[in-house]
Structure formats: structure tokens, C-alpha cells
TrEMBL record:
PANTHER family: PYRUVATE DEHYDROGENASE E1 COMPONENT BETA SUBUNIT, PYRUVATE DEHYDROGENASE E1 COMPONENT SUBUNIT BETA. Its cofactor is thiamine diphosphate. SMART domains: Transket_pyr (SM00861). It comes from Deinococcus malanensis. This is Pyruvate dehydrogenase E1 component subunit beta. Residues 11-186 form the Transketolase-like pyrimidine-binding domain.
Amino acid sequence: MTATASKTKTMTMVAAINEALDLALANDPAVHIFGEDVGVMGGVFRATDGLQAKYGVERVFDTPLAEAGIVGMGIGMGLAGLKPVAEIQFAGFLYPALDQILSHLGRYRHRTRSRYHLPMVIRAPYGGGVHTPEQHADSPEAILAHTPGVKVVIPSTPSDAKGLLLSAINDPDPVFFFEAIKLYRSVKEEVPEGDYRVPLGKARVVTQGDDVTVVCYGGMVEVAQKAAEAARTAGIGVEVIDLRTLVPMDTETVLQSVEKTGRVVIVTEAPRTAGFHSEISATIAEEAIEFLRAPIVRVTGYDAPYPPFTAIEDVYRPNPLRVAKAIKKVMAY
């Protein structure tokens, strides 16, 4: 983790993202930002607010409602030597672009035997917690993690959002950057000013503990922290690990924690079947089964579309109580 300035200021996650994009535009003329409503409007969550006025319509511009076109245009821009930063308005709108993603985006380094790189970032808000309409709270990270050639990054704090986004924009390969809607304005913290970087592929140990490892990312980190606090009052030490980057995953940090605790709970809000939690679980089973004192427990969403608007969301989305019950279950085995 590096920063060129020692000063910090209190920011929300969406403000930290805006500052990262501002810095990227200022420091590199190859950076271009585009997507639905990102220009004049500044994005539906105002993540790009003020950037078009500052840098002009040629570098920050609106696109038609055409996700396949947004990604396809970004691929061309990246191959031409630019650094495109595209926004998909919600991660659940990504599906029309899957042909571009699966057939082209992740394949160019392999296709050209590393003669060409494709430095493209695709930002998208994801996840629940704010009662959005249908398809606005989807968590499709497992689809992308299953796509060779792309990286997947999901921050959980304002400082990580800024540092990871600047690292993603300067990465030579395509990066999907998912931003938890629930965290955009609900959390504030001190964020380093200036060109501050957090390396991709390095997890963060959020809390230290000797009894149970809880692996999570994005919007589930605060849920896991609350469950860990409740467990601590019962004398259970919980080590919460925020992956930050799913691809590449920091397997070393996860396995070191599992070797210490011997018990694992994995928390994600995506549907249960074939989610990224399954990949984490399989990795632990393959690499650290001799250290496990109990079966791995997953706390996830359900195998159903994310419920729109209603309070049913509070049942679908994992909460601290569900995580606390999972911690109790592995401790009782």
C-alpha cells in the first residue's frame, strides 16, 4: 500500500471513487471515462460528478443504453492505446455484454501471444441493501471470475476503493471493478490524498482472531465485522479477511488464517450454487484440509432472483445474525 501524500481527508466511498477517477484523468491523457449518464448527469450515484465539466466531452462522455456497445467500444479503445474506464450502470445490466466479455475482452493477451494488452476497467455498482428494483442488486462476480484473462476487484472501504481503482486503471489487463451500492454513502473514513495505490491481489485482515476465519468481500465485510463483534462478547475470536481482489485471489493470506483457526465461514450475497464462495471453499479443502477442525460453512444469498423493493431483501441478503449462527455452528462441531 503506497501513497505519495501523507495527508488524509474524510470521504465516503463514492467520493473516493470520484477522486480516483479525477486523478487518473489528470495524470494520464490516455484515460477516458464513458457509460450511461456518466457525463452530464455525473452517474446515477454521482461517482463521475463534475468530471465532464472539468475534462470535456471528449474524455468523459455519455453512451447509448447498449452494454455490449460500451464494452465493445472499450475493447477497441484499449487496443488502440487508450485506457478506457467504462461504467455499467448496474452490474445486473452486464449480461448483454457477455459476448464481448467472454469472446474478446479476456482473450487478447493469449490471442496475440502477449503482443497486445488490453488495459480496460469496467466499473459497476452491485449488491443489495437499499431496496432497488429487479436486476439492480445482482452479484455476477462468479461469472467474471470464471472468465480467463480478466481480473475482478471488489473494495469494501473508501480508502481501498480509491487505491484499488487507481491500481486497476494502471493495470495492463482488463479489470472488473464492482462497488457495493450499500457502501457508497453509509461509510466514511480517512482516505490518503494524492496518487494512493492498493495493490491488486492482496487481501486485508480486518480483525484478528484465533478461533474462526470469516472470508468475505465487498458489502459483506461490514456484515462479517458485526458478527465478529457479537462473537467476541461470547469469547470467540474471529479473524475477518476481506479478499479485496477475487481474481487473482490472495490464497496465501486465507490459508495462513485457516491454519491458525481451523474453522471457516465464507460470506457472500450472490446465489448459493456455483458462487465464488464455492471456489474459496474448494481452495481451502484442497490446500488446508489437514488444519480444518470443522466443515466449512457458507452464508450466501439464495438460488432465486434477488427480490426487488420489498423487505424480503432483508431475508435474502446475509445479515450479522446468519453469520453469527454459522460461527456458532463451526465452533460447536
